[in-house]
Write a structure and sequence with these properties.
Helix content is about 75%, strand content about 0%. The chain is mainly α. The longest helix is centred in the middle third of the chain and has 30 residues. The protein contains 9 helices and no strands.
Length: about 220
């Protein structure tokens, strides 16, 4: 029952890493980014545990949505994005803000998330925790990798447009636990599938473009 929850992100992360390495990507840089994400999650989760308990669950529609938006969507994801930006700012070597480099950072960042959730919620498991939440995290990894990389490669107001899209995406993920808790399970599943497909859509487009026209391994200008 818990296998998908435990291994969805790690296996997906290793699949992406092995695929990029087979395509001739910079192995050292990819593993550095993955390791940074892995190590960053530990202090981020400690902060999450300290802060999350201060937001109670209020059994109104707004209260339920706000609680899960903060706990399962906003806090960990935004701390991951801020961590990437800070590490990039203080890095001695110029960062390659390609989609693949940002992707493996967030893949490493969320690798242990489900493991800790399994321990934290033992033994009160449900299909949201075991299946929907890990799938949403895969969607967030994919969406944030694309949007953060595009943020650094864009200029002017379009940079803020990518951040706004990222926040809207997070807001949409909070609909899944909201529908789950009010017992509209089919809506929770539909929203999960739609968000996962939407997160992968840019990668399908880039794959169809092919060659150097695709985004993943094109570094942005160093700013």
């Amino acid at each position: 029952m818990v296998l998908y929850c435990l291994f969805a992100v790690p296996i997906f992360s290793l699949f992406v890493l092995s695929y990029k390495l087979s395509r001739g990507a910079d192995a050292k840089q990819l593993w550095v980014q993955f390791s940074r994400g892995l190590l960053t999650f530990i202090p981020a989760y400690i902060i999450f545990l300290l802060v999350a308990g201060r937001i109670p669950l209020v059994y109104t529609y707004g209260g339920i949505y706000g609680y899960y938006f903060f706990h399962d969507a906003f806090l960990l994801s935004v701390m991951g994005a801020l961590s990437y930006i800070l590490i990039r700012a203080f890095s001695r070597a110029p960062e390659k803000d390609s989609v693949s480099h940002v992707f493996v950072f967030f893949a490493g960042y969320f690798t242990f998330a489900s493991v800790l959730e399994i321990v934290r919620h033992f033994p009160n498991y449900n299909y949201y925790l075991l299946f929907l939440l890990p799938t949403l995290r895969l969607a967030v990894i994919a969406a944030f990798a694309f949007l953060v990389a595009r943020y650094f490669s864009a200029e002017g107001w379009t940079r803020w447009a990518y951040l706004a899209i990222a926040l809207l995406f997070l807001a949409a993920t909070a609909l899944v636990p909201f529908f789950f808790l009010i017992h509209v399970g089919y809506a929770a599943i539909i929203v999960t599938v739609v968000l996962f497909a939407a997160a992968l859509f840019p990668y399908a487009v880039m794959s169809l473009q092919g060659g150097r026209a695709s985004m993943p391994d094109q570094p942005s200008p160093v700013r």
